Amino acid sequence: MNQQDDHIDYDNVVIDIKNLKKSFGSNDVLKDVDLKIYKGENVVILGRSGTGKSVLIKIIAGLLQPDGGTVEVLGKNVADLDYGDLEQLRLKIGFSFQSSALYDSMTVRENLAFPLQRSGKSPSRLEMEESIKKALEDVGLSQTIDQLPSELSGGQRKRIGIARTLIMQPEIMLYDEPTAGLDPITSEEINQLINQVQEQYHTTSIIITHDLTCAKSTGNRIAVLLDGTFLQVGTFEEVFESTDDRIKNFYDYNFITT
User: Contact 90/120 with Cβ under 8 angstroms?
Assistant: First the structure.
């Protein structure tokens, strides 16, 4: 296992998924999904496109309601929260979107200021500027502060998207296909950044991917989602030493293009 786990608190369950079910019409996307994620842990959800990976993190964030089972995040049953409590919980959750989700008409500085302005925390102009500069420094892109997203490379936009999330000091990070569309060298830089965020910010993270290299580089544990359930959960080596043909076939799948 590439990732050190001595910083993981196995007495503190941050996300607790029990018997989770979700269907769309006759399509049973999630069937009796169970998983505990511990404080400080990076868990990679591996699966091909359409296997329910994004549905799972949407349920965790309260963007979708489950049809059965429960998801507890930071001790709270997400489905039972009212709008105000759900908004408070989401302030503790950082989303790193596949598209980076930056506003094209805003500079990098303005993109990073936006969540602070919307959070209700009302930081002073000086506090906001310091937070922006620190977040950019942490992702290695201080020099981009006055640039527009269109002037940045794909890898830089990914980093800025992560910086905009980190500025809120989240306890949980949700990464959706963080290396999608990136060349191998830039992908490795993003993998290293995910590990750096875990160590520096002490985050608990779910990393949604179909990229084996990303999974091996960033995951303390790997959970393989297939046919609506976790077929195998463990370290990268434990998962792919399996004699299950479905795991072997999954390993042979081309994880770069979908």
Answer: no
The two tokens of residue 26 are 């006759």
Domains of the chain: 1-92+171-253 (3.40.50.300), 101-169 (no CATH)
In this predicted model, what pLDDT tens digit does every residue of 193-224 receive, in sequence order? 999 999 999 999 999 998 899 999 999 999 99
- What would the pLDDT profile of 63-104 be if each residue is shown by its tens digit? 999 999 999 999 999 999 999 999 999 999 998 877 778 899
pLDDT value at 106 more than 70 = yes
Count other C-beta atoms under 10 Å from residue 253's C-beta. Answer: 12
- Non-local CB neighbours of 58 within 8 Å, separated by 6+ positions: 64
| CB-CB contact of 22 with 66 (8 Å) | yes
Q: For residue 215, what are the contacts with CB-CB under 8 A and spacing of at least 6?
A: 44, 46, 207, 209, 222, 236
CA-to-CA distance for 185 and 188, rounded, in angstroms? 5
- Burial state string for 169-198 with b = 16 or more CB within 10 A and e = fewer than 16: ebbbbbbbbbbbebeeebbebbbebbbebb
